[in-house]
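Hi V.,

You were right to ask for the full record rather than a summary. Here it is.
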Amino acid sequence: HPLPDAPELVQTEGWGGLYSGLKPSLIGTAASQGIYYYFYQLLKNKVEDVAAARGKKGLGDGTVGMFSWLVIAAVAGSINVLLTIPIWVLVTRMQTHTQAERKVIESKRELLLKEISRANPMDAHILKDRLAKLDSEKPRPYGTLQAIREVYRESGISGFWKGLIPTLIMVCNPSIQFMIYETLSKRLKSKRSGKRFPKKNITAMEVFLIGAMAKLGATLVTYPLLVVKSRLQAKQEIGRNAASRYTGTLDAILKMIRYEGLHG
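Predicted structure:
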């Protein structure tokens, strides 16, 4: 996983490190919510108008079905992803920058140590000075403009849409959650249809538990996509070798399975 843990962040960057990427994250959150609900309401109004028109012609009851609601939510979510993913690419970069820089410094240090072991005494002295200077370097978090320049320098405009495919697939997370929730609630209601349970309604606590289980199931199913997305969006030098550099979604999945196993 590309993100360092909290104690490591605090130790290397201070408490401010826990808020890396906060500014673009706040902008992204506001933009995502606004864009999502705008297109959701727009599509909802159109679908409701179509359903009402069909109802007048006797082609339906004039209401929108549950499947249509899921499709509307998925389309609105996909539009939101397409428009806002550059912001989240920057957020991921800013959150993983320090760890990536530390990996780069470690790689340079290893190369210098190899050169020192093979160099003559005069050159070895110069290389040792370079090593001391390198050891004194500490990676520092950078700002949004620096992140924008780095992404563009690495991959051009297309770099701002890295991780698009797994992010689009993750739009199905709420749909999976909804299906699990409805399945569990229907089973619970059907068990109460007998004489032992005259009341078919489920309690508030049961709704809470079913909802929690539904979200847990949806998260377990889609979590690998979240990891792949983060790996793609993080600075590619975050790995020590080509095994941690990815050209696309499929390449990332295959390399992670090959070098880290399914648990990766």
